[in-house]
Amino acid sequence: MNQHAQNMIHWAERVDMAAAFRWTARLNMHEGVANHFSLAINDDGTQFLMNPNQMHFSRIKASDMITVDANDPTTLSGPNAPDPTAWGLHGGIHRLVPHARCAMHVHSIFATVLASLKDSRLPPIDQNCCTFFDRYVIDDGYGGLAFEEEGARCAALFDDPRKKVMIMGNHGVLVIGATVAETFNRMYYFERACETYIRALQTGMALRVLSDDVAEKTAQEVEDYPEQDLRHLAELKAILDGEGSDYSA
Fold first, then answer.
1. Less Cβ crowding at N or C end of the chain, within 10 Å?
2. Residue 56 domain-assigned?
3. Residues 155, 149: contact at Cβ < 8 Å?
């Protein structure tokens, strides 16, 4: 099977990923030509689509995605080799966390500010913050760039299937999910929640923190809300299509 035929098999997934990259850039949640999104395309998750090495999110098209095999280190020496830190972090996730079909890692401003605080917990002070109540892990063992050893260490922290956000201390945020739409939606609202919390701290006023019971009830209600993630991504693609974007090329 030639490369074009292989690309067409997962074309819808490539289009979704490209839209997510474009919108992440528009929201200024990108990091220049760094950071990566990945999406598993085989049963055990070890083969995945990913953005090319050091291409700006605002230019990525569906046809640009590379295919990476987490069990094949020779991938790193091929003509379309991924960034070594992308291999380390995303390879570790897809190799060791099978329920993480999609993984998105960014250094978005407010999530990274939260990750830089001595206390990186996100208290339930509004509805968006409640969404993540008891549903994130905090990595307080940052050890440098996410090469293979660091990637495996981070992957081991996703040992509770309910927790799909990693607040990467001194680093950024890593979000996992079952689909591009679910994962992007989660990443978007986590950044919104972080912004609300950081701006609330900036006032210097006491915080109105909701009870654990209300926070958990709200989180469950959001999880049960039908198709919000699918509609969110569909609307973003409709906006891009209306603008004549080439993301789906």
1. N
2. yes
3. no
